[in-house]
Predict the structure.
Amino acid sequence: MKPFNHVDAASVSDAASQLASSKGTAQVLAGGTDLAGALEDRILPSYPATLINLKTIPNLDYIKTSSSGLQVGALTTLSEIVNSTTVSGTYPALSQAARQVATPQIRNMGTIGGNLCQGVRCWYYRYPDQMGGRYTCLRKGGTTCYAASGINTYHSIFGAPKGCYCVNPSDIATALVALNASIVTNSRTIPIESFFDALTGTVLQSGEVVTEVDVPIPPSGNKQTFTKFRIRKSIDFAIASVATMVTIDYRTCTSARIALGGVAPTPLRSTAAETAIVGKTLDANAAAAAASAAVASATPLQYNAYKVPILKTLLTRAPTPSS
Amino acid sequence: MSTQYNVIGKPTPQLQSLDIVTGQESYSNDFNLPGQLYAKFVRSSQPHANITGIDTSAAAALPGVRGIMTYNDWKTLFPSLVDGRVRLIGDDVAVIAADTVEIAEQAVELISPTVKYQPLQTYFDVQDSLKSGAVIIWPGKQTATLQGNWDFLPAVHRAKGDINAGFASASVTVSQTFYVPPQFHDSVEPRSILVNWDQNNQVTMWASFQSLGGGVSLARSLGLPINKVRCICPRLGAGFGGKGPGNWGNYLAYLSKNTGRPVKFVATMDEENVQALRMNARYIDTKVGTASDGTLAAIQCNTLLDNGANTGGLTRAQNSVTGPFSTYECPNIDVTVNSGLTNSVVRGAYRGYGNTKQQVALGTTMDRVAEKLNMNPMDFYTKVVVKTGDLVCKRDTDPLAPLSSCGFQTQIPNLRAASGWDTKWHAPGANTLPNGNKHGIGMACRMHWAAMMPNGSYSAASVMVESDGSVRLFTGAADIGGGQTTCLAMIAAETLGVSLASVRLGDRGDTATNPYHDSVSSSRTTYVAGNAVINAANDAKQQLFALAAPVLKVPVSDLGIKNGVIYAIDNSSNSAPISSLIGNASVGQPCDIIGRGSYVEQGMPFSSGVVVAEVEVDTGTGEVIVDNIWGATDSGFTLNPGMTELQEQGGQIQGVGYVLTEAYILDTNTGKCLTMGNPIDNRVVTIAPQINKPYVAQPIDPLGPYGAKGIGEAGLMGTPAAIINAIYNAIGVRFTEMPITPDKVLLALGAYQGSAYSEVPPKQVT
C-alpha cells in the first residue's frame, strides 16, 4: 500500500479544519473497512496524502433517544446497532439492515457514518490499478461509464441520472430512507433523501464530516421491515433490498414509506409503491400492486433485468402487518 | 475401525493441528533473511502485444532500488520461456528489487507508463483463436513431446470398440454441450517466495510450492547442479493445484544473484487471480447411447479446451480421457480433446487436472439418459458404472488395465438409503414445499485416479532411528493441507512397529535433507509416497532385527516389533527395546539406523464416488438453496478416518461454490478480469450447506499402502453434476453452463424478458 500520513483527530472541528485545509489531499478514516481496500487497489487516480483518523474523537459513539427520536453517533459501529435493544425495539428496520451488512468482523469495525459514505462496488470502479490499469470511469472524472455497455449484472435498473449506472451499496441507507432519517454534519442537518448524489456518492462538501444520524419517532402503530436479497447470505452486498414503514388503522394502510436499495445510484424512495397501498386494505393484493408500481419505471440494462422480478418478490413478501 | 493395526485406521488429528490453530505453524511468508530486498512486478496493460520499449532509468535512479530485470533480460536468460510478448492483462513485464515494498511499488509506477506496446489481435474464445489465419499466441515453442506451437496442441484421441456401431445399435441416444468456466483456487495463502543466491552459487528458496520437484526444475532452468539448489516448501495455506513456481522462481533467483541480496516476493491475490493456473475452461460435447434396458452402447466425448495464455496443457487434454473410460462400463467409447489458447487468465492444474470438468458434463448427461430411459437414476447408475476388474485407463497413452478396486457397489445403495432417495425423488417440478420453494434431488457418480501415471512417477523416503528409539521420517512430500505428512508418519509408525508419538517428521519440504518426491498432486501422495515410506520403514526394521537376532538368540525371521520393543514371536518376554540395540559404540553398536525406500508407481488405482444433493429453488428470486449433500468416497483401506471424511466434505463445499456462485467475468472490451482476486466479486462459499457425514467405501486396493488409496482431489467431483441434476428435478430446467446464478434461473423460468450474462465467451467478430 502506498504510504500516507495518519493523524488522529481530537474533535470534529479539528477533523473538519484539517480536511478543509488539506485542499482535497486528506480523507477521513473511521472503521476503514471500505477505504483500506480502495487504497490497496489504488482505484482512484488521486491518492490521499493524509488520513484523518476520526476514531480518536471522543463522544461520537452513542445510541441515544430523546423526545425527537433516536440519535446515533457517527462512530457507532454496526455491531453496536445490531446489539441495541433500543434500536431493535422501536427501529427494527434499522436493526435488521445493520444485521445484514457484511460479516461480524466487518460490523465490528464498520461505523454507521462510514456505511453511509462508502464507495460503490461496481467492478469497473473497483478494478485494481496494479493489474493493467484502473478504469478511469465517469465517477473518477472520466467520460465513460463502462458498465453502461459492459457487463452490468449488478448495476442500476432505474437509470443513471448523472450517467453512472452503479448502485448505492448501503443497506443502512435504505432503512433510513424508510425511517425518514436525517444526517447531521458539523455544519448542517440533511434529510436522508437529499443526502446522496448519483455521481459523487454524497452531497458532503469539502471539510464536512458526518457526526450523527437522527431518526424521528415512528408513527404509532407502525410496522417496519427490511429484506435483502444477495447471493451469499454470509457476506454479500444487496442485489436488491426493500425497507418499509407502514401504519394501519384496522386493516387499512394509513401511511407508508417504502425504500428500495441496491437498484439505483442512490437509495430510492418509491412513492409509487406507497401510493399503491395507502388507503387500501393491506393484503396480498395490495402488496402485489405496490410491487408492480415500484418497478413500473424500471429501465434495466442488458444483463440486469433479473433484478426486476427479484425486487417485486421482495416487495410482495414484505410481511404485511397482519401477518 | 481396524483392530488389526496399532496406528493406522484410527481417527488421528493432523500432527501440526495445534500449531495451525494457534498460529505457530510456519508458512513461506514467515521466513525472512537479514538484508532481504522486496520484489514487485511491472504488469502488462495490454492483453496481447509485442513490447517495443521500456525505460527503467527513472526507477533505477530511485533511492532504495537495488535491481531491475526486464523482459529483455529474461529473453536472454530464458529464451524458451520469454519472447518479449505479453499475452494477457497482468503478464510479467519487469521486476524490481528494492529496500522496501513501498519503494518497489514506486519504481513500478515509474516504469509502467514507459512500456511501449504494439498491440496484436486478441482472442477470448478458443473457438476463434483456433481458426485458420488467427494470430498464433505462442509461436515456435518446441518441447520433447511437442513440435510446433502451443496454440495447436496435438488432438488427444482415445477410442475403443466401434463408436458408430455402438450408436447404431442404441435404442436411446442423448447428447448435450456443456461449458465449464475457469475456477480460481482462491487459496487463503498467496504464493510467497524468498530466494537467496549466495556468493558460492548456492541458491536457497523458501516457497509455497506444492512440489519439491520444483527445486530440481529450478536447478535445471538456472543451469546449476541440483545440489546447489535448495528448495524449502513449508506448510501451504492450501494448494488445489495452483501453487507452482511458474517463471517467478527463475526471475527472482537472478534478481538475488544480480543484487547479491536475498529477495522476497509475496504475490497479491490479484496476481494469483491471473497467474495461479486456474482450472481450464472447456466446451464439452457428450453423446451417450444405450440399449432399452439401460446397458451402455456408446459414449462419445468431444472436448475443446481453453488453456488461457498458458503454455502446455497437453496433460490436461490427456487426462480428459479418464471420465468416459474409467467411470462407466461401455464397449464403445470415443474421446477427442482439442486445445487452444486465449488472451485470458493462465490455466493449469486445479483439483482433478482434466477430469473434474469432464465429470460435470458426463454426470449431467447421464441424468438425461436415465430420464429418457424412464429409469430411476439410482438404478441406472447401478447398471452402468464400472466394477473391480473392468478395463480402465487415465490417459490416452496409458494401457487399458483392470481396475484394482472399486467402491460403487456399496456406495450407491448406501447413499440411496442415507439420503432417503426413494421417498424424495420425483418427477421434475412435482414437489412444491410449504414455503413455496421447489424441491429437487439429484445424484452423480464419479471416478478419479489416485496416482499420476502407471510406471512413471517416483517417491523416496528415509526413516532414521535414533539411539533412544525415537524416529525421524524424511519425505519429499510437502503438506498442502490435506494431512499428507500425518498419514505418512502413521504409515512409518505402523510399519516400523513404534508409536506415532515417537515419530517426528524431519525437515518437512526441504530438498537439502529429504529424498525426492515428484509433487503433491494427482491424489498420488498416499499411494506412491506411502509405499516409499513402507519400504524405508521395512528397511530400518530389518536392520534392527539383524541387530536384535544375536542378542535375543532368535533368527530374524522369528522376530516381531511393537511399540519400539523387538521380541521373539514365540516368547514375547524374550525382548529388547530399540534403545538397547543402538547408540553404544563401545560395544560395536551403530549410533543410528537409516532405512531407505523408494517407489515407482506400479499401476493406476482409482477412487470411485457418489454424491446426492437435495436443493430448493426459490422461483421468486432464482436462488438455489442447497439443503443437503451426501457424499461417498472410496479410500481403499482408510488410513485416517476423520481426515478422509473432512477431505471429502471440503471438496463438496468447493463444488457448491463452483456450480452456484464463483464466477469468472472477463470484460472482452478490455481483456480485464472483473472478478479480480477480491472475495466480494469472486464468491467462494463461506458458509457450507448441510454436508452430511460421508460414507467411505473401503475396498482394499492391492496397489496401495495397506490397501489405501488417495482421495485428495475426488471430493470436488460429483457435487456440481448432482446439484445441476437436482435443480432439474426441482424446476425441470437443465443448465449447461456454470455458475447457475439467480439471473440465469429466473430467465430459464421465464420470470423476465431479456438476457442474463453468460460466462460462455461471447463470439469475436472475425
In short: Chain A has a mean pLDDT of 96. Chain A has twelve helices and 14 strands.
